[in-house]
């Protein structure tokens, strides 16, 4: 069985036409993208690298990595966002970028050790078995390659900020975007990464000020956070 939730795929497909509107429901993704792109590039030096973006959606991160000089494959199982991503890249003349509808597990079986960099951002909390995605991303990475994840912590503060605040009060995201029970504690993600064979390099928090409407990276991983991992040169 495919490790995907049909309701989640449908949810993002319905909003696909808004993906590249920076004032739409995807505004937070547009705002945080420069931060996460620079953070990834700081570790992986992506120019000239083979990169796969797992759960790429409409391609905001994938296209920005291609524009920075990486050769990028974006993969997702939601067809409408993929078509939006393909059209946007074509209209923008981004040549070193391709998209495919394929699961992380199937791509890992097909192209094990095929990528210098693997990114999987804002996806793990939307799938039935996130640990399987972590294993697949690890398998896709070359020895010595980099693997990056981002997700949401599971605690009372994250419920208040990411669901009550972001979806109901500030309306930064559509209601129902996230399901609290699927949020992932950093210790859980770290365990899955280690069990998959990755070396943890850094946790980084992502914070938001609703008054200034500004995002920034910090050491606070209590709500949104990212993790940088490296696949050992020898297993």
From TrEMBL:
NCBIfam families: UbiG
Cited Pfam families: Methyltransf_23
Reaction equations catalysed: a 3-demethylubiquinol + S-adenosyl-L-methionine = a ubiquinol + S-adenosyl-L-homocysteine + H(+); a 3-(all-trans-polyprenyl)benzene-1,2-diol + S-adenosyl-L-methionine = a 2-methoxy-6-(all-trans-polyprenyl)phenol + S-adenosyl-L-homocysteine + H(+)
GO molecular function: 2-polyprenyl-6-hydroxyphenol methylase activity; 3-demethylubiquinol 3-O-methyltransferase activity; polyprenyldihydroxybenzoate methyltransferase activity
SUPFAM superfamilies assigned to the protein according to its UniProt record, in alphabetical order: S-adenosyl-L-methionine-dependent methyltransferases
Top-rank EC class of the record's enzyme: transferase
Native source organism of the sequence: Aquabacterium commune
Full protein name: Ubiquinone biosynthesis O-methyltransferase
CDD domains tied to this protein: AdoMet_MTases
GO BP of this protein: methylation
Residues engaged in binding S-adenosyl-L-methionine: 36, 55, 76, 121
Chain's role: O-methyltransferase that catalyzes the 2 O-methylation steps in the ubiquinone biosynthetic pathway.
Transmembrane segments: none
Coiled-coil annotated spans: none
Protein keywords: Methyltransferase, S-adenosyl-L-methionine, Transferase, Ubiquinone, Ubiquinone biosynthesis
UniProt record similarity statement: Belongs to the methyltransferase superfamily. UbiG/COQ3 family.
Record pathway: Cofactor biosynthesis; ubiquinone biosynthesis
EC number: 2.1.1.222, 2.1.1.64
Source organism, top-level taxon: Bacteria
């Amino acid at each position: 069985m495919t490790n995907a939730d049909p309701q989640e795929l449908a949810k993002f497909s319905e909003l696909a036409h808004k993906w590249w509107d920076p004032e739409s429901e995807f505004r937070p993704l547009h705002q945080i993208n420069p931060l996460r792109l620079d953070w990834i590039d700081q570790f992986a030096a992506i120019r000239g690298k083979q990169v796969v973006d797992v759960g790429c959606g409409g391609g905001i991160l994938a296209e920005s990595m291609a524009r920075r000089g990486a050769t990028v494959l974006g993969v997702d199982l939601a067809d409408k966002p993929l078509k939006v991503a393909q059209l946007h890249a074509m209209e923008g003349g981004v040549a070193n970028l391709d998209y495919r509808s394929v699961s992380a597990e199937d791509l890992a079986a097909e192209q094990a050790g095929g990528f210098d960099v693997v990114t999987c951002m804002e996806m793990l909390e939307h799938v039935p078995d996130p640990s399987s995605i972590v294993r697949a991303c690890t398998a896709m990475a070359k020895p010595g390659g980099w693997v990056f994840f981002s997700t949401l912590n599971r605690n009372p503060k994250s419920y208040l900020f990411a669901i009550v605040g972001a979806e109901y009060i500030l309306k930064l995201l559509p209601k129902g975007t996230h399901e609290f029970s699927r949020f992932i504690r950093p210790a859980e993600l770290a365990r899955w990464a280690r069990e998959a064979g990755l070396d943890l390099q850094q946790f980084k928090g992502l914070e938001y000020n609703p008054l200034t409407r500004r995002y920034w990276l910090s050491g606070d991983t209590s709500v949104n956070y990212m993790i940088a991992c490296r696949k050992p040169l020898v297993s």
